[in-house]
Amino acid sequence: MYGKAFAPEYQGALTTLSVNSSLTEVLAAGTEQLRAAERAGQHGEAARCGLAVAEAHRRLGRIGEADRAWKASYRAARAAGDLAAMAWALWSGGTLARQRGAFALARRLLELAADFGERGGDIVVRGYSLAGLAETGRIQGDYEAVGRLHEQLLAEARRRGEARHTVWALEGIAQIHRNTGSYDTAYALFEEAAQIADGADDRRGHAWALRGLADVVSVRDGDTGRALALLSEAEETCRAMKLSSALAYNHKMRGNVLYRAGRHAEARDWYERALAEFRAMSEPRGEALARLGLAKSLAHLGRDRWETAAELADLARALDRLGLRHAREMVARAQEEFGTLEESRARSDVRAEAVR
């Protein structure tokens, strides 16, 4: 039913690149072809090669370079009058904005990308842009609003037999079910995603699916050993393909699994590692989640109660600013678990009095 996975963001002279090409390989080839297109004055080709450069930088966690690259790709596409290429550049920019925690900007760019894709007759970039909008809402915890869009995109991807997009949609829906406590459904969806990704040779999608399975196996079954084994398998792919963001989330999940098993010192070490990785790539959502895990681990290891209260209160404010509802609820549960809500309020009162 599904063919081999392909990477539609590798365009022009880069269509020979595989979905499993390492990001350093993509960056080298993309930069070389981009320079050649610029020297030849080929704006359309420069736009499409620049897209691959932007995506490689983004996935490597090089935020500044990614930002410059997608904007240059958009300018080249506009100079060529290529609406579809403009849409792809906007998709890349919107995806980067989401990664940086700029959710309002992400939605604006992705909405424009979907519109340009439709007007330019490129159904793939339109689908990817709508998927980006769905993922943005899901990350913010707006499950009811984006659940139907996820299902719609899944149906479209299945109808076209597009393995990579099917895997993405399955994983998104699975994550919603996992976050709302429907663990059996989440497991089945992650498992299907892993099977399709494996059959289509989509190593990136397979790694994310294994991470989802590890999470469910840990929280539902308490099977720490199997969860860690799944994460180790996924980590091999992340390292081989230089997937910096996926690797950081893998490490954060390893912290989650160890924390649930009561292995708080080990969990602390993995959360610290993930936190450094997220900070290096300026990914605020991952940073906040790693901070939360670290704060909870340190609390179990005897950290001062007021320090825990202050950290959780600061996290709550940060997540409120980002608009991450599900993560904010996790902080509230942690404040209840460690009995720090009153301390946090008292500290806020003291701060407010000092300001006055």
Describe this structure in words.
This protein has 356 residues and is mostly helical. Among the domains are: 7-134, Serine Threonine Protein Phosphatase 5, Tetratricopeptide repeat (Alpha Horseshoe), CATH 1.25.40; 141-242, Alpha Horseshoe (Serine Threonine Protein Phosphatase 5, Tetratricopeptide repeat), CATH 1.25.40.10. The chain has 17 helices and no strands. The longest helix is centred in the middle third of the chain and has 19 residues, at 203-221. The termini are far apart. It comes from Streptomyces cellulosae. This is Tetratricopeptide repeat protein. InterPro entries: TPR-like_helical_dom_sf (IPR011990), TPR_2 (IPR013105), TPR_rpt (IPR019734). It holds the Pfam family TPR_12. Keywords: Repeat, TPR repeat.
CATH architecture of one domain: Alpha Horseshoe
CATH class of one domain: Mainly Alpha
What structural class is derived from the secondary structure elements? Answer: mainly alpha
User: What's the CATH topology label of one domain?
Assistant: Serine Threonine Protein Phosphatase 5, Tetratricopeptide repeat
Protein name: Tetratricopeptide repeat protein
Keywords: Repeat, TPR repeat
Layout of helices and strands:
Elements: H1 23-39, H2 43-59, H3 63-80, H4 83-99, H5 103-119, H6 123-139, H7 143-160, H8 163-179, H9 183-199, H10 203-221, H11 224-240, H12 244-260, H13 264-280, H14 284-300, H15 305-322, H16 325-337, H17 341-355
Helix pairs in contact: 1-2, 2-3, 2-4, 3-4, 4-5, 4-6, 5-6, 6-7, 6-8, 7-8, 8-9, 8-10, 9-10, 10-11, 10-12, 11-12, 12-13, 12-14, 13-14, 14-15, 14-16, 15-16, 15-17
